[in-house]
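Worked example 2:
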Amino acid sequence: MTMWPRRLLVDLGDDIGNTINYSEVCEQTKEFVRGRADKLIETLADRLAVYLLKQFSIQRITVELRKFVLPDTKFVAVTVTRSAAVD
């Protein structure tokens, strides 16, 4: 995942409280994925991106999901980028 905080980088003031809690993002991601039964990784990537935008102070997020299913390839992947609605 790549995330852009809603605040400008100059406004973060080198204060962790002003940015995204990445540990919490990881925990919420695990919880979200455990409760899903999506058949397509495209669907899961999209829904996860939308969910995280709503849960955290994220302006934009890119989610890449990899699937290790084909013997002749390292993996297949899908990448989605979503932005938060403008207030």
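The helical segments are 22-34, 41-55. The chain is about 30% helix and 25% strand.
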